[in-house]
Amino acid sequence: MKLSECPAQSPSFRVVRDGAFASVGFVSYETDALLVFIESEAYLPELVANARVAAVITNDALVDKIPAALAVAVSDNPRLAFYTLHNHLTETDFYWTSFDNEIDPSSKVHPRAYLADKNIRVGKRCVIEPNVTIHERTIIGDDVIIRAGTVIGSEGNQFIYAGEHLMGVKHAGGVRIADRVEIQSNTCVDMAVFGGFTEIGEECKIDNLVHIAHNVKLGKRNRVIAHAMIAGSVISGDDVWFGPCCAVSDGLKVGSRASVSLGAVVTRDVPEDARVSGNFAIEHGKFIAHMKSIR
User: 4 to each of 72, 134, 193, 194, how far by Cα in Å?
Assistant: First the structure.
């Protein structure tokens, strides 16, 4: 789609340099032919560094600083123009092409489970227990167990100000669950926002009462224990431990084999093989030494 082909909306934008885009997201995303918005100079270095960005919605103050190779549109409120366009695109086939449900006959779906009428794929030998809810755009691999009361593909919590009111940002992506995952009771996994998937890697084991937010991508064999909260767009490596009641802030990276201790509040990236504890979380040994020093 070209910027000039976008529908009229409020707030409107003016096309300065026309060009095509094929995906929508933030400037940090790695999807091809990406449309983003920029309303602060702080994000210009990241914009320049991301070769996948094709088009930008920005304001008059920044328009001359956008690289000449990119398509540009200008708005008094780039953020609102961007999300209003996104919300419109969710009502089209821009993000997703619908298909009939495909549920392997070897899988056991309890009659009291709710599955949307389309856009769900369930692999072989899966078990879906009572009162599970599975929304559209969910792809489930083989040998997956989803325990009672869990919700897959919830709309995530993303709102922006539109004048004095809050406007909901529609979610256009889905959830992809790899082989041999087990998700226990009353857990919620949100769908992705700008197409694509929230992803649960092979053999992840997710406990009761866990929240996995939109766009999260968990590696293989992660273990996520009860009451953990993993915020939007977190990316983890393989063999990560998320302890009970921990909270991981949005957009962070947690390296392979890392351990997030019970109750930890993580506000910065966690390196591979690290163990972090505390609020705010720091290296575990330093946290224990600090606790000893104040007792």
Answer: 10, 37, 23, 20
> In angstroms, what CA-CA distances link 14 with 4, 51, 89, 264?
9, 23, 18, 46
Q: Which domain holds residue 60?
A: 3-89
Core vs surface per residue 62-98: b (16+ CB within 10 A) or e: bbeebeeebbbbbbebbbbbbbbbbeebbeeebbbee
CA distances from residue 292 to 274, 278, 280, 283, 288 in whole angstroms, order as listed: 20, 13, 17, 15, 6
Q: What is the predicted pLDDT for the residue at 287?
A: 85
227: helix, coil or strand? coil
Interval 39-85: pLDDT, tens: 999 999 999 999 999 999 999 999 999 999 999 999 999 999 999 99
Specify whether the CB–CB gap between 188 and 170 falls below 8 A. Answer: no
User: CATH no. for residue 31?
Assistant: 3.40.1390.10
Of 214, 233, 294, the residue nearest 278 (C-alpha)? 294
**Better-predicted residue by pLDDT, 122 or 162:** 122
Catalytic residues: 214
Q: If 0-12 CB within 10 Å is exposed, 13-18 middle and 19+ buried, where does residue 171 land?
A: buried
Q: Residue 83 domain-assigned? A: yes
pTM: 0.92
